[in-house]
Design brief:
Elements lengths: L4 H5 L4 H4 L5 E2 L10 H13 L10 H20 L8 E4 L2 H12 L8 E5 L8 H10 L2 E5 L9 H7 L4 E7 L11 H10 L3 E5 L11 H4 L3 E5 L10 E5 L1 H4 L12 E4 L4 E3 L13 H15 L3 H20 L4 E3 L11 E6 L4 H9 L3 E2 L1 E3 L4 H7 L4 E5 L6 H18 L1
Parallel strand pairs: 1-13, 3-4, 3-5, 5-6, 6-7
Antiparallel strand pairs: 2-8, 7-8, 9-10, 11-12, 12-15, 14-15
Helix pairs in contact: 3-11, 4-11, 5-6, 12-15
The protein binds pyridoxal-5'-phosphate.
Length: about 400
Amino acid sequence: MRVDVAVLRRDFPIFEAQPAPFHYLDSAATAQICRPALEALCRFEGKARANVKRGVYRLAEAATRAFEEARRQVARLLGGVDPAEVVFTAGTTLALNLAAHGLSPRLGPGRRVLVSVLEHHSNLVPWQLACARTGAELVAVPATADGRLDHEALERLLDSRVAVVALTHASNVTGAVSDVARVARAVRAVGAVLVVDGAQRIPHGPVDVRRLGCDLYAFSGHKAYGATGAGVLWGRRELLEPFPPFLGGGEMITRVTLAHSSYREPPHRFEAGTPPIGPVLALGAAARWMMAQDWQALRAHEEALTRRLLAGLAAMRDVRILGPTDVGERIGVVAFTLESHHPHDICQLLDERGVCTRGGHHCAQPLMDHFGIEASVRASLAPYNDEADVDALLEGLETVRRILG
Ligand code: PLP
């Protein structure tokens, strides 16, 4: 079925609020919030605000029920997992730091953590810190020339020394989607744990984490049509259970004396203090919104737009596309350079035409090194984009070239 973007945009209040022209092509940084998520956030903060997991009056109990319902919605989005396996965090970054902390007891001298060259710094720096703390060795899995995970190289690196493999599901620069199911089979064969950074993949449709076969999966609400401030670490129950506490504080304990504390079961052990309640409720509403969409149609729509964008860029002189050109292997996140013009100059000139793009290293400096560049421009698509957005970018780039020479 064809996607009616005008109808879909009614679910996104930003399109009523922003003056035309407005071509939002930075959803990989932050997607726009969908109306049900915004309403859930506003309803909670304006009409139903109380802390969760503690009060015994009705308002507080209702807040706790809504919070746990959000957990159930996220569990559905991840393929119908056990809600007790869904830990709410502040976002992907905190989720991956929690994963690295929780898995640290498995690390030590002689043990290895594999990360790919494609990783966002959020899925690299926490492992660098964990390796420095424990004496484990961090080993890089190379990328192919067109910015995909080198699956064969990864499989060659897998042996009994490997304790953890941490990979992005979809690159926030090249858009390349890794074959997580294939990786999971190989990782399981050597008894290692597979951590997947799903920040860029989740906004493109629900994911069945059990079918993928990974062990931990992280994502952010604000990239998945929710509010800023909440994210998720999903983990297999048997893996999360022995994780040591991460942040200490209220609500993650069973008993505290001046000398000692005992801790609750997951997920509560990892949700110390007052959680980001409103953003979590928004995330639950966004997950419900996502589950109600026809992702087959949205995927076809995104592929058509990505094809149009890639073809338009490929036809331009001195444009270098960083990523695979086969739309079947990628999401609509397209990074590129234009001659030697600085990405920030390009983005600013595009902004004058109402085109919002991102310029920089995209928190993926090892990948920039791989391509031998400092930075790039990135255009990223979401279901609410249409041909006019893509064409505005391509026309804008022609203008940029005229202005910058
Ligand atoms: N991982 C990937 C692949 C990302 O693209 C991002 C953000 O751009 C992150 C992790 C970090 O997400 P957050 O800043 O929401 O914690």
